[in-house]
Design brief:
Protein name: FAD-dependent oxidoreductase
Distance between the termini: 36 Å
Structural class: alpha+beta
Number of helices: 15
Helix content: 25-40%
Shape: globular
Low-confidence stretches: 1-23
Length: 516
């Protein structure tokens, strides 16, 4: 069922927080979320405006979200050669996205240590001088202007991890902030949901169900012979070094033939092993011997996870915890961690080529794993009825290369259409198409005129999202959102009626790629 909750209902549900709010704090731009797309939005915003100040509200203890707290340490780059590059990019540059992505990869490499990204993002945001960050903080309420579709104020509280059960809970008193422009750059779409705007959940737009793509718990290993791992199928498998000397490899299609792994997939209600991507946790410049190199593994996929669910909402009974049978991410992470503690799990993956001596890296006596899950999908902003189509970017649009969006383009999207499946009986597919132009409207919800959406809640259908979900595409959206927000905050552009010539000119100044 398509949803449009009442914003006033949501506000009334959270009325208990407003009495303790600290009012009167105002920023030009408030960003919810701490992932790379949130960082790119913040950095481009302060670069595009001589005076705009930015507040970031970040649920995690660090910037980077899935790529740091979740340990998903690969950028998933594509190597399309654009027909035209903006000034400042090297003439031999390959990739459909430039801008902040170019700078991030130049600093960190295509594969990186999550701790390195964490430090880099902290340095870059601090150096700007106009970005304030509230870590381990989550939003509780969104107030709209009376008789208006503009967002006025956000309420928030600190959260903390309970050392006894690992659950994140609200703590402390509530506070609030006002702004001219708000940005939901999160992986959960929580800000969009709080406004009462319309959205679809997972692949709901297909009419099948509301399932979301599988999640992953990243975990760290040692003792892998990467070259032996890729040897059985060098056409599909591979290795690569980044410009920083970090190492990655991919392979593992033997998971579809090894009897023990097939039995595990069949008998486990939640877990499945997929062909893996492995990224080095460091910059070793390793040669042929990878046995001492620690790698983060994107290998275990988890079904039946609802990324909208947060345990802290359930405990407060605030109406935000969905009534769905799927697991909440904290619960799913704990179940996955228990799998990693089983000796039989490691006996099973040692049957993969190159993995005969693999061991888990331990931290505090437990397998090293992501602090949060790598979620691939949650919700998608929805157009109003009668708009002509449900979402701003659809499967039909990307199949045509987005040619209809050329005049309103904010960047180029490109990646395999790779959902990693929604249900166990579905086959893994990974089709590739040509790049497509991405329209400004993917950043918009028609229900709130000063809210931009460069995160998971972008106005994109589920099929297109299976490619747009990777971070190079999201960072491109972050650049566009930050630039748009700055222009609007300075009174140079209206978000509802953007000056596309001005916006595109400013994006080119940030080295965004606007030509396929």
């Amino acid at each position: 069922m398509l949803r449009k909750a009442s914003a006033f209902l949501i506000i009334s549900l959270f009325g208990l927080f407003s009495t303790a709010s600290v009012r009167g704090v105002t920023y030009e731009i408030v960003i919810y979320g701490g992932g790379p797309q949130a960082v790119s939005a913040a950095l481009t915003a302060v670069s595009s405006s001589p005076r705009a100040d930015v507040l970031m509200i970040v649920p995690e203890r660090q910037l980077g979200s899935t790529m740091t707290a979740g340990r998903q340490n690969l950028f998933d780059l594509n190597y399309h050669k654009p027909s035209s590059l903006p000034p400042g990019l090297p003439s031999d540059y390959t990739g459909s996205q430039g801008g902040s992505l170019y700078r991030f990869v130049k600093a960190l490499g295509a594969v990186f240590a999550p701790s390195e990204m964490e430090s880099y993002f902290a340095r870059e945001t601090q150096a700007s001088g106009r970005i304030r960050i509230l870590y381990e903080t989550d939003i509780t309420q969104a107030d709209l202007q009376e008789s208006s579709t503009s967002l006025k104020e956000l309420h928030f509280r600190k959260i903390r991890k309970d050392p006894q059960d690992g659950r994140y809970r609200f703590s402390g008193t509530a506070a609030s902030v006002q702004a001219k422009v708000f940005i939901d750059a999160s992986e959960t779409g929580r800000l969009l949901r709080l406004t009462g705007a319309g959205y679809t959940t997972g692949r709901e737009d297909t009419g099948k169900d509301q399932l979301q793509m599988v999640a992953t718990l990243m975990y760290k290993v040692k003792g892998v012979d990467a070259y032996a791992a890729i040897a059985p199928n060098k056409t599909a498998n591979g290795v690569a070094y980044s410009t920083r000397g970090s190492f990655q490899f991919w392979g593992g299609r033997e998971v579809y033939t090894i009897p023990e792994i097939l039995a595990y997939d069949k008998n486990s209600p939640y877990f499945r092993l997929k062909a893996y991507n492995a990224g080095e946790d460091g910059y070793s410049h390793v040669g042929a011997d990878t046995s001492k190199t620690p790698f983060w593994m994107n290998h275990m996929i988890i079904y039946k996870v609802d990324g909208r669910k947060m345990w802290r909402d359930r405990e407060l009974d605030n109406g935000l915890y969905p009534d769905s049978p799927e697991l909440d991410p904290e619960e799913a992470r704990e179940l996955a961690l228990q799998e990693l503690k089983k000796p039989e799990y490691w006996e099973m993956i040692r049957k993969l080529p190159g993995f005969a001596n693999v061991e888990p890296v331990l931290e505090n006596g437990e397998p090293a794993a992501g602090e949060i899950l790598y979620l691939r999908e949650t919700i998608h902003a929805l157009n109003k009825p009668g708009a002509g189509k449900a979402h701003a970017l659809t499967e039909a649009d990307v199949m045509k290369g987005g040619q209809d969006f050329y005049d309103r383009r904010i960047g180029v999207g490109f990646y395999n259409f790779d959902s990693n499946t929604y249900q166990k009986q579905e086959a893994l597919t990974n089709p590739l198409h040509e790049p497509w132009y991405v329209p400004y409207e993917v950043l918009q919800t028609p229900y709130v005129d000063n809210l931009l959406l460069p995160g998971y809640a972008a106005n994109i259908d589920s099929y297109s999202w299976s490619a747009m979900r990777v971070y190079p595409n999201l960072i491109m959206l972050g650049d566009a959102a930050g630039t748009s927000a700055a222009l609007a905050a300075d009174g140079r552009m209206e978000l509802a009626k953007p000056d596309m010539d001005l916006l595109q000119k400013e994006l080119l100044r940030h080295q965004a790629i606007l030509e396929k």
